[in-house]
Amino acid sequence: MISKPIVVGHDGSESAARATGWAAREATRRGTDLVVVRACPPPQADVPHLVPLPKSFDQALVAQCRAELKAAGEAVTGVEVTTVFTRLTPVRTLVEQSATAQLLVLGSRGTGGVTGMVVGSTAMALAAHGRCPVAVVRSGTPTDGPVVLGVHESTSEEAIEFAFDAARSRDVPLLAVHTWRNRVVVIGTDTDAMVAAGRELLGRRLNGWQDKYPQVAVQRLLVNDRPGHALVEQSKHARLLVVGSRGRNTLTGALLGSTCHALVHHAECPVVIARNFG
After folding, report:
1. Where is the UspA domain (predicted)?
2. Contact by Cβ (8 Å): 119, 135
3. H or E stretch including 161?
4. pLDDT digit string, tens, across residues 192-220
5. Which of 100, 184, 197, 211 is the 20 to 30 A CA-CA neighbour of 13?
């Protein structure tokens, strides 16, 4: 069976170059190919211009995008690389690519303008509509530290599996983090009871995975904090951070969305969002 490739979106920025390097190393680690994608949509027809843009502008835009894509592909070593050029929008392009990919990778900052990706909104759109996990590579790409997994009641099995597999392939521990400040706390709440409930949740959600990945050392951490803030703090000492949701209800989506937004913009290590794809 042919392994699905890793797909990285490239927009010519330094951030995209870092993401491509990270994606290439991940492809090598997984023994699969890398696909570098450059979306170069035409200037939007609904954007008002005092003077219509000349045809030469679009031709120059295409030439620039193709040249940057070629350079990006040639810069990758140690893994089989395919490049894809398209005139579709970045989100549509990467959603389509996700159907045959095992991982989508983005940089944390785009170039802006008509060719750049607004990474925060792009990552959230791909997390919501893509068919595989999405990795956002921040400016830092640490080479040590654990894989951190954010765990809550609706954490997807896909996120848990991704985190365990990432820890195994990197030969590092897995740190499972559960926060509970987002729960409704009333006067007289027994903090010890909430901690006990958190320990029970971690045990239940990780049940079976430690048997499947016996070589992965698992550490557990309970934090009385907001999920986004707690995980950003943990990212300062992590090699990779993984979150994801199996829920589709409004509350779950809002909580995951606010957490992911914080991580995409503030985490100090690469972030993977892996929701349920069923």
Report:
1. 4-138, 147-275
2. no
3. helix 157-170
4. 888 899 999 999 999 999 999 999 999 99
5. 100
Q: How far apart are CA 68 and CA 39, in angstroms?
A: 11
* Final residue belonging to a domain, choices 91, 106, 137: 137
153 shares its domain with 68: no
Q: What is the pTM of this model?
A: 0.87
DSSP state of 2: P
Q: Please, what sign has the CA dihedral across residues 145, 215, 26, 97?
A: negative
- Which of 139 and 267 is assigned the larger pLDDT? 267
pLDDT, tens digit (0-9, with 9 covering 90-100), for 96-147: 999 999 999 998 765 543 334 456 678 778 888 889 999 999 877 788 899 9
How many domains in the chain?
A: 2
DSSP code per residue over 18-59: HHHHHHHHHHHHHT--EEEEEE-PPPPTTS--SSPPPHHHHH
C-beta of residue 158 within 8 angstroms of C-beta of residue 134: no
Distance CA 54, CA 37 (A): 26
Last residue of a domain, one of 106, 137, 168: 137
